Amino acid sequence: MFVGLSDRKRFHFASHFSLTSLTHSPFSSLQFRVSFSAFLFLDMDLFETNGNGNGNGNGNGVEDSLPPPPPVVPPDVVPVKADQEDFPPPEPVKKKPSRFPMARRGTGSKGQKLQLLTNHFKVNVNNSDGHFFQYSVALSYEDGRPVEGKGVGRKVLDKVQETYDSELNGKDFAYDGEKTLFTIGSLARNKLEFQVVLEDVTSNRNNGNCSPEAGSPNENDKKRLKRPYRAKTFKVELSFAAKIPMQAISNALRGHESENFQEAIRVLDIILRQHAAKQGCLLVRQSYFHNDPKNFADVGGGVLGCRGFHSSFRTTQSGLSLNIDVSTTMIITPGPVVDFLIANQNVRDPFSLDWAKAKRTLKNLRIKTSPSNQEFKITGLSELPCKEQMFTLKVKGGADDATEEVTVYDYFVNHRNIQLRYSADLPCINVGKPKRPTFFPLELCSLVSLQRYTKALSTLQRASLVEKSRQKPQERMRVLTDALKISNYGSEPMLRNCGIQINPSFTQVDGRVLQAPRLKFGNGEDFNPRNGRWNFNNKKIVDPVKIERWAVVNFSARCNVQQLVRDLIKCGQMKGIMVEDPFDVFEENGQFRRAPPLVRVEKMFEHMMSKLPGAPKFLLCLLPERKNSDLYGPWKKKNLADFGIVTQCIAPMKVNDQYLTNVLLKINAKLGGMNSLLGVEHSPSIPIVSKAPTLILGMDVSHGSPGQSDIPSIAAVVSSRHWPLISKYRACVRTQSPKVEMIDNLFKKVSDKEDEGIIRELLIDFYASSGKRKPDNIIIFRDGVSESQFNQVLNQELDQIIQACKFLDENWDPKFLVIVAQKNHHTKFFQPGSPDNVPPGTVIDNKVCHPRNYDFYLCAHAGMIGTTRPTHYHVLLDEIGFSTDDLQELVHSLSYVYQRSTTAISVVAPICYAHLAATQMGQFMKFEDKSETSSSHGGLTAAGAVPVPQLPKLEEKVCNSMFFC
């Protein structure tokens, strides 16, 4: 570009080019300043080398092999100094202010007052002058290798405390089990080093270089035989990292949260974890589980539900409290490995086991071997059966290097005199390293207790778990009171030193019961739901559709299809839905019943389309399996994405009027009808919402099962339509990187005039369905985020939504209300002296709520099973200006507009719909080829590291429907 110019002119031209081209570009002033200043100082920055051509003085740059570059300005030419008039100083970049969760505006007053108890126990903090000192912990073996296995750290630190008590000034630790330790007050020095020997470290987590027990196979080294197996030396380094004032807790209780507050609370929670660890509990985040068979419930498949307790400190309006709740985790059934495998694979005997599957299931589980009772971690299975698997054995009494080859079976039966009943023809368990295996016959191995089972539960297991872990309110209160006594936190020295005392009584709170909203049905009939429920007996649907041009498809379900159709038509008439006779009933050809799901669906469509006069409007699909049918995903994808046909799947087992009514409610909503309306929606008289066009969004992200790091996460956003209604919705669903919680496709600019994001699609639909009106207000309900992610919702997701609005119309400034709904918490409410759950509509916004932020708990539904779990709503932003009462009533009302059911639901309908839409479209990908997203990319498993396959777009005829209902 600069060829033929003199050096002085070239410099002027470069400066001018840099300035003019960038000031007329769409890029920011920041980019301009960086580019221009870089150009101006090119000769100073880039070519100030140390004689090796790479400018960084390390002699290993890419430029090593290249000749030095020519100078930009020859030494005899002085660059012309730029005038101030030509180059005014750049304006400082205005950093966009971050949004933070808003403060509480006051408490509500509507509703009937009700005294309640909650599972928060008041905590008195009598020491706020001290400091927690944080130290980094580095553990290594004698030879310098870092200790990587879990579980060893606590034993090592206990030994350090026992051995070096005086050097530690007699201080107690709060140790997180990994790399962080806290003390109250400082240790003697900022860096301390210790060395300890542990005599009793079993090899359950990390075997170091030691071999297993002396008599086990593959031990052909005399020295290894004589080495004392259990003694091991550890080096421990403690380095000062931070100082946390206890005052931070007191400040937080007054609503003044400092940056130290979360850390100070974390220290208290670590003390609780450590207290549980000393009692031999399994720790899962803030929950702990005792090894007590009384707490185990068999849910099938070799899996137990293990009941334990959650405990964590919470800052609340009434001070610091300890939240204790019943918690359940899944564990492997302890005992003989063979019994577990038979139950897990649901086979009759060990000779029917799938050993490839068994190998995957057993990897990394811990076992004890008999008769030595030593503990090991399973690394794999032998390739050959026990009677054929050879290893090299040192010959006793022979020459130093005398060895012989024997089978594992022969060694245990003849050399160790251990009788083996059934292991001869089964693989051995390997607990050694890949190049140095150590084998044990299967029947000598038993699984250790309290090992977590992290795979997804089957439908039957989940149902069994719910059945066996439910507790009525009074029983739960009794169990929690006992748990607090058994925990004996008063004996924990660290808590005593913090001046912490825990009140053993449940905290009293003030609740209010909101009145259920009035519902509108067909024929102008009104109804007030009682106890959060209603039914359609003698009632008609408010806005019925006509079910026409439809057919029935039967995938080998065993039922009287003709009778089912007659009953459906009759039931429809009673509810006000006109159901025409179906065109035909298409039965699956018997020869395809064992074919893959995709083939079965294709063959059914070929059969159907050959006989139908045109594409049907609706298909009723009968499936043979009640839950998790493999046909469901391919069938839905074929209908919704390829043909735009609304479809309802059922697995008819017990068909009665109630069942058929529920089916008709779903069909009516999917085809565009309405089952019931709120009275205030019909009037319309909802505060604020009915006065100005208001869009309601429900947002959720669903992730693959634990351990499935190559399954994309699915983000779903549903939006209200036909304002002033708040009962009609449509959905937009996209895939995104696995395990990523923030939705990243809300705004997706692909060109100056094109945005392919989720929000644009929903805004355009609202405009088209609401009389060409843009929403003045946008209400966002966000599910599934924790408190640590609130700022991301406000500063990432909300920013994208605002960008999408501005992209449509630069001058459009809608007002926003952002609410996060959480179900995954441990706060429960109880009616004192009553066996019943709290009544539906119970709202709590005092005492156990946040000391500063705007939150409240709502039990909108009637808890019929176990103890009601309230939904915890956090209002992060309210630009619209709702009063506390109006907002709580709106949230309560949105629990009554769920078109699939005749009950109030536990969380607002838009969030439930988003969850349904994400789940249903996730089934589309169930049988897709996943080879692209896993092993071909080096097995990447980190969040966001794998390429994401896109979901198919829904056909135009159904994309605006409530297909997910």
UniProtKB/TrEMBL annotation:
One of its GO terms (biological process) is regulatory ncRNA-mediated gene silencing. Residues 336-449 form the PAZ domain. The keyword RNA-binding applies. PROSITE patterns: PAZ, PIWI. GO terms for cellular component: ribonucleoprotein complex. Keywords: Repressor, Ribonucleoprotein, RNA-binding, RNA-mediated gene silencing, Translation regulation. Residues 618-926 form the Piwi domain. It holds the Pfam family ArgoN. Residues 52-111, 205-225 are annotated as: Disordered. The keyword Amino-acid biosynthesis does not apply. Residues 66-77 have a biased composition (Pro residues). GO terms for molecular function: RNA binding. Belongs to the argonaute family. Ago subfamily. PANTHER family: EUKARYOTIC TRANSLATION INITIATION FACTOR 2C. This is Argonaute 4.
